[in-house]
Design brief:
By secondary structure, this protein is of the alpha/beta class. Strand 7, helix 7 and strand 8 form a beta-alpha-beta unit. The N and C termini lie far apart (46 Å).
């Protein structure tokens, strides 16, 4: 039975599938920080995973041209033929993957593709292995689809990466999927070929387990790290891999809501069934913009990644200079996931004891006016996430505030 909720007009019964879920903690923190800003508090928000760059001009121009040409009607259910062809070309050009257009799906964001895939494939009690820390949406989608998320902690000592022995230990006859995200939100950790290889060997021995590879941050990697996607690394798994990507992060198109994926045709057809009864086709204008993004110039991607690299280095250096905080250098994405272990148990000037990472982040917001996200929101406590997808001026000010606030904490 669902949970009865009393309202002003009538009793509303909440569906059991979402009774234990809530709005994303990241969004809650962002909303609270925004409310503080509206009343005049000088809050700096380092919680949102959204590039501060504008959408490239040629992409916006393509959307304008599409509207002028009357491309404002429904499109094919899961992507226009032109966009699917561009996605197939992208997979061949950048990833060494050969998908037909029948093996490609397009949706209103990568989140919808993951939702569609879980709804299309999970039966009640099916298990999905998710290394943590992980994007908060993964486990909630699994629960909504009546699956069971199996969370496997991967801390900083392990580079926030899943090990083969951990994976092998949690696989059961009910395991249906392994979800991987590289580079990762929230840790920025990434899996190179040598990191993936032992995990793929485990999957070769577990034919009931499929792999969802979330490659959303593919183009935001640093130094000598070389991005690789699992289906290209191990062709024998190709028919059990859904490769998910999108235009949101690399092309600064978060609000356009276009994600895409390549995978075996039976799964893609099943995903289309789910989409047909939910949103139907993605926005026609957004699809035209995504086509321009994938087919257009790509040279600016390296420049933007270098800008993020400069910010990453500044944030990591500043955090590691604070007594009680330790921050690993991430390989990609635009997040740091620093340990606040050394802050737990300290006393604030107001006499409050910091008992958890949630306490720490809440105190930073209230007293330093800096919004960060506790690691508990991502399934791994005693850490906190900073998004450095904002200006250096804001980052410098925020990090100075954090350092000054932490200096006021005292040990018991």
């Amino acid at each position: 039975m669902g949970e009865a909720v009393t309202t002003g007009a009538a009793d509303f019964t909440l569906a059991a599938r979402i009774a234990g879920l809530g709005v994303s903690e990241i969004l809650q923190i962002g909303a609270r920080a925004a409310a503080m800003k509206r009343v005049g508090r000088p809050v700096i928000i380092l919680g949102a995973g959204e590039p501060d760059f504008d959408t490239p001009e040629h992409v916006s121009a393509a959307a304008t041209a599409a509207m002028a040409a009357g491309q404002t009607k429904y499109t094919a259910l899961d992507g226009t033929p032109e966009l699917k062809a561009a996605i197939a070309a992208k997979f061949r050009r950048e990833n060494g993957l050969d998908y037909t257009t029948a093996e490609i799906t397009v949706a209103a964001g990568a989140k919808q593709i993951i939702y569609n895939a879980m709804m299309a494939s999970l039966n009640p009690g099916d298990e999905v292995v998710i290394p943590t820390p992980c994007w908060t949406t993964y486990s909630d989608i699994v629960r909504i689809a009546d699956g069971v998320p199996v969370l496997v902690p991967c801390d900083a000592a392990a580079g926030f990466r899943l090990r083969a022995d951990q994976l092998r230990a949690v696989i059961t006859p009910r395991t249906r999927w392994l979800m991987m995200n590289s580079p990762s939100n929230p840790s920025g950790a990434a899996y190179g070929a040598a990191d993936y290889r032992p995990l793929l060997d485990v999957l070769l021995d577990a034919p009931q387990v499929w792999l969802l590879a979330d490659d959303m941050y593919e183009h935001i990697v640093y130094g000598n790290f070389r991005f690789v996607t699992p289906a290209a690394l191990e062709p024998r798994l190709r028919d059990r891999v859904l490769t998910v990507n999108g235009v949101s992060k690399a092309y600064a198109m978060t609000g356009w809501r276009i994600g895409y994926a390549g995978g075996p045709e039976p799964l893609i057809r099943a995903i289309a069934v789910v989409q047909s009864q939910s949103t139907s086709c993605p926005s026609s204008i957004s699809q035209a913009a995504a086509l321009a993004a994938l087919d257009g110039p790509q040279d600016f991607l390296k420049d933007r990644a270098e800008s993020f690299r400069i910010r990453r280095d500044a944030v990591v250096t500043a955090l590691n200079a604070i007594d009680g905080i330790a921050c690993r250098v991430p390989e990609g994405a635009f997040y740091t996931f620093a340990s606040c272990e050394g802050m737990i148990g300290r006393i604030t000037p107001e006499g409050q004891r910091i008992g958890s990472d949630r306490d720490f982040c809440g105190w930073l917001l209230d007293h330093a006016h800096v919004a960060t996200v506790p690691g508990a929101a991502f399934g791994l406590s005693r850490y906190f996430r900073i998004s450095y997808a904002t200006s250096m001026a804001e980052l410098d000010e925020a990090l100075d505030r954090i350092a000054r606030a932490c200096a006021t904490l005292r040990n018991e």
